[in-house]
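Kindly inspect this today.
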Amino acid sequence: MQEEADRSVTDDFELAGVPDSFQRLWTPYRMAYIKGGQDQVKDEASCPFCAGPGRTDEEALIVHRGKTCYVILNLFPYNPGHLLVCPYRHVPNYTDITVEETAEMAALAQQSMRVLRKVSNPAGFNLGMNQGEAGGAGIAAHLHQHIVPRWNGDGNFFPIIAQTKAIPQTLSEVREAIAEAWDSENPS
């Protein structure tokens, strides 16, 4: 009897993508990011954070350009409005940036929070920098700070158990709303 149950569980694992007793939700599209993320970025030529500022704001998902740093939407957001503050310079560590870059990163993180409050009224935020591949940085070669808006209950079973996140807006819609609010907060 136990042998039959063990074989049934084993058979489920052999059929990738087939629903099983754990109600897994498969997200094979994320493999492009997983396989292509960390190891691919060695220098400025292969770095998406270096390439972004050379594109239009809409193409690159940039919401604001500062003097030494810019703010961009995360291409793989944890929540809608997940922003990244990046220095223009290709540097991997927080200790590599100048005093001016440090000050602008901090100011842009604060402004990001103000704008996100205006646009989507989050209940809180996660802010952080993952340093190095071992520290969890998806792109370890180029420093970036995460600003993740949070709402009560957004850590439901979907992302925790299923490793899947439901995002209710397209990235271009989110970028447009944030960029518009950013401009209205800082009229030129």
Helices lie at 2-14, 31-36, 48-51, 57-60, 99-120, 157-161, 171-185. The beta strands are 62-65, 69-73, 83-87, 124-128, 145-150.
